User: Fold this.
Amino acid sequence: DVQLQASGGGLVQPGGSLRLSCTASGFTFSSATMGWVRQAPGEELERISVISSSGDRITYADSVKGRFTISRDNAENMLYLQMYSLKPDDTAVYYCTKRDDGSRGRGTLVTVSS
Assistant:
């Protein structure tokens, strides 16, 4: 079965950086389009970035474009999200997702606050 585990969240001050990681198992990671989504308290799920199986096609939501970088390591079955210039509006639980079936495992909480 598909297992996705995000990690790396925490409390960071505005303007700070964090790197999220996602460990994937139970499917052929190197063939899967992956992504990151987030859900802020009381808000709907927001799709923030998608990366193709080979990593050659990447998209970002306007809200994070220029500040976040998605990447993957197919040899290690890992997905990453490097976040810079964090804002309080980035506070949310972040999940990695398998795009074809929407699977998303345990998320990691990012809190941006002074």
In short: Residues 76 and 105 are 18 Å apart (CA to CA). The mean pLDDT is 97.
